Amino acid sequence: MNELKQERTKLFTDIYDGVKxxxxxxxxxxxxxxxxxxxxxxxxxxxxxxxxxxSFMDTVSEQLGCDVAPVxxxxxTPAYYQILESKAFVMSSSGVMQHPxxxxxxxxxxxxxxxxxxxxLLEKALPRIYPGFGGxxxxxxxxxxKAMKADEDYKKAQLIAMxxxxxxxxxxxxPLGGITEAPYDFLADVLRSFTEIAKDIRRCxxxxxxxxxxxxxxxxxCAVSCMSSKYCRTMIPIHMPAFMNTKQFEKYYxxxxxxLCQFIYESGSNSQLLLQGDMxxxxxxxxxxxxxxxxxxxxxxxxxxxxxxxKKHIITGLYPVTMLETNSKQECIDYAxxxxxxxxxxxxYIFNFDKPILSLKRNSMENLRAVIATVREYGVY
Length: 381
Hints:
Blueprint lengths: L2 H14 L15 H7 L4 H4 L6 H9 L16 H6 L6 E2 L5 E2 L11 H6 L1 H13 L7 H33 L8 E2 L3 H21 L1 H19 L10 E5 L7 H21 L4 E5 L7 H4 L7 E4 L4 H7 L5 E4 L5 H4 L2 H15 L5 E2 L13 H15 L3
Parallel strand pairs: 3-4, 4-5, 5-6, 6-7, 7-8
Antiparallel strand pairs: 1-2
Helix pairs in contact: 2-4, 4-8, 9-10, 9-11, 10-11, 15-16
């Protein structure tokens, strides 16, 4: 490990160990769609061309002075979803993978799901949103085998390209230990849909609570792996609480989610939370989570978040990614300094934007370079 890689790695291990790092670590996520578009490649074709992965990752990486590889891994491989005839994830006309509003369970089926979640998912839910699983069992088995092989091949190609990028640019590298969902979010995303679960919380809230408990073991299974450690963490995107009132959250969302986070911590790892929507009102709950999870906020007042967050926890996010495209370079620099001054004062801050970077159009790349350079120089303790 060369000196630069050691330095960058130590920034993160220090902050995960509860030690103030020498400067604020920088972790940004440029989507592959944005990177491909920036390189003026055809988005639809390039996602199928494994030989192109290194090229667009390299072009973006050489522009930026991040501490970890800036181009994110694409977990939604088009081949996988096309083979399974997916209704849950489909490619738009522009080539971007999108998640339409779908449901795979009716309200009268809660009891059946609660009795045996695995059987219900396998026999009813998945064939409804992935027709490639339906019909003839032999054909369904072949489709599953082909889809899994395609997914493995495309992800392997990405990992090989990313390993080369990490080596070339001496990036710190902490692979995820797992990716999972809070049980309530899983019900909304996979089974009932956003619209329907918003009705269920009023029609049959106790069934939701039972379903969350029933599916919890499966969310735990996704949460940890042989890669898991206090440095290789479990990503959990959290979105439904922003659309719930506090009483609903406390009674139906929080109990199973807390158990999930406790399981991850007791397994020797920790959580990397993506708080989608404005969830500042839930900070006191988040503060109860064990260990020192990464807590990435999309929205919120920086002063309030810094003041109220458990000092053992790690703050990230809160820099509006839209500023890269809509604001001047100086405004972007000034906001970066403001974030460093407010969020970085306690040594528990990793710089990142509120959301992934989905576009590098107009002056976005120039502003992004300026922001990263500012944090790297101004964020020294």
